[in-house]
Structure formats: structure tokens, C-alpha cells
Amino acid sequence: MSAIQEVQGEVIWLTGASTGIGRALAIKLASQGNTVIASARGQQALNELAAEHDNIIPLAFDISREDQIETVRKQLLEHSGHLDRVVLNAGTCEYLDIDQPDWTMMQRVMTVNYFGTINSLAVAMPLLEASARPHIVGVVSLSTVVPFSRAEAYGSSKAALQYFFDSLRVDLVKKNIDVTVINPGFVKTPLTDKNDFSMPFLMSSEEAADRMANAIAKRPAQFDFPGRLKWILKALGFIPAFWNKVIAPSLSVK
Ligand SMILES: NC(=O)c1ccc[n+]([C@@H]2O[C@H](COP(=O)([O-])OP(=O)(O)OC[C@H]3O[C@@H](n4cnc5c(N)ncnc54)[C@H](OP(=O)(O)O)[C@@H]3O)[C@@H](O)[C@H]2O)c1
Fold first, then answer.
1. Range 11-251 has CATH code 3.30.70.370
2. From ligand 1's centre to the CA of 79, what distance in Å?
3. What is the pTM of this model?
4. Residue 148 in contact with residue 248, Cβ under 8 Å?
5. Beta strands, E only, the chain
6. Would you say the CB of residue 42 lies under 6 angstroms from ligand 1?
7. Where are the domains positioned within the chain?
8. 154 in active site
9. Distance from the CA of 20 to the center of ligand 1, in angstroms?
10. Scanning 27, 147, 229, 238, which has the fewest C-beta atoms within 10 Å of its C-beta?
């Protein structure tokens, strides 16, 4: 990747900041001199994060609660009249067991990953429009490149988000609001600690946060990492029968 860039002196709202990638990214962006308003459901984890690091303000929010949009916006406004960036990172993962399928899981996962992200954006939009150079960052996933085993719920929620942000980017050109989709590969977090399959090129949350902070400063339309995993998955996408029958099933076995 080209030269490292930093975001400095901005007000950034980051969802999913209590653990994993979001926590590491909150610490990284705050250490660069930004004010990070850190959200998740777990108030205690947010309070601890804010107590341990300067420039982090805790703000509990369950992103699936559409009825909380106005309240959370008012709470954000108590801290700042505007947001320079929002990083829509909060998410969850559940896997489908095809032999004993819980189809209600599809709705649960979509409620958080897809509709929760949109609820968060609805909170942020008026505050972003009050910034000189607003930026929306959506954390999606490299899992959308090819279909992974048991990922019917997670993968489709992320594929829906990818399209949503790509479409949003078109409509926000006239408002000069940039939209970046970040697609991580495998990152070691509480979410992936539950995985019982091989995770090639697994990296730490801190390394992921470093790469993401650099990409956020540069505002690309999309940032996929690690590059090696992206290109391998894209290449395998050209031979779908081999992926579906050989590679994808083999990744399910540790
Ligand atoms: N780890 C990976 O390999 C990987 C790869 C690609 C994409 N991603 C994406 O990266 C993002 C972060 O994942 P992670 O691996 O860091 O997972 P994680 O450690 O489980 O963190 C998820 C974060 O989202 C929050 N969250 C979950 N449900 C929420 C809700 N209803 N309302 C508000 N906050 C909620 C969690 O806090 P509370 O539980 O306190 O609410 C937590 O802060 C997710 O969108 C994930 O899909 C991860």
C-alpha cells in the first residue's frame, strides 16, 4: 500500500466499538487526535474503553432499535454539532445448520447487520451534512466475493450492505459526501473466535485497524484487505463449480 495517511482533529462516530475491530479502530483513531464517539450495546465495555484512552466518548446504542434514532441523535448532538465521519462497523454473525435450520436467524442477522446499519446512518446523516467534508464508512466483508458454507444469513446481510453503500455513493455525489466500503478478510476478534474452520491470512484487530485507519484517511470507494485473500477469492469466483464442490466445503473442515 502507498504512503500512510492519518485522520486528525475530526469528530468520528464509530459503531461496534466495544470489542474486536471496532475497539482497535477506536483506539487508533483517538490516538491520532480525533474525538471518537464509541457505540455498542455494552455500556460497561464502552466506559472502560473511554476510561483507558483519551478522546473517546462512550454512547450506548443498540443499532437494531429504530425507535432510538431520535434519542441517539440528540445524545450525539450533546457532544458535537457535527460529525466528520461515521464508521458503520457494528455487526453480528450466526451460521445456518442446514440439517436443523433455524430460518428465523436470517431475520435476526439482517436486523442487526443491514437494518441496524441503516438505523445508524439515519442517526448520523443530519450531523454529517453539518460537516465541511463528510465521509461514510461501511464495514462489509470479503465474504461477499464468493459464497461461504453456512453463511446464508451473514453473507447475504453483507452483500445487501455492499449494494446499499454502492448505490448510496451514487446519490451522495451531489452532496459531496464520500462513501467507502471496507471489506476485511479474517480478523481475530470475539466474532471469529467462534469459527471452527480455517481462516487464511488471519490478522490481529490492531493490524486490521491500522490498515482501516489508513484507508479511511484516503477515502477510496472501496478498500479490500488483505489483498492476497481478495485476489485468491476473486480468481476462485471464476471457477464456481470447483469453489462450490471442492474448495468451499473443504474450508468448513478444520
Ligand atoms: N472479524 C472478521 O474477520 C471480520 C471480517 C469481515 C467483516 N467483519 C465485520 O467487522 C465488524 C466488526 O466485527 P468484529 O469481528 O470486530 O466483531 P465483534 O468483536 O463481535 O464486534 C462486534 C461489535 O458490534 C457490536 N454490536 C453487535 N450487535 C450490536 C447491536 N445490535 N447494536 C450495537 N452494537 C452491536 C458489539 O458490541 P455489543 O455486543 O456490546 O453490542 C461489538 O462492539 C462486523 O460488521 C463484522 O461483520 C469482521
1. no
2. 24
3. 0.97
4. yes
5. 11-15, 35-39, 56-58, 85-88, 135-139, 178-184, 187-188, 203-204, 222-225
6. yes
7. 11-251
8. yes
9. 7
10. 238
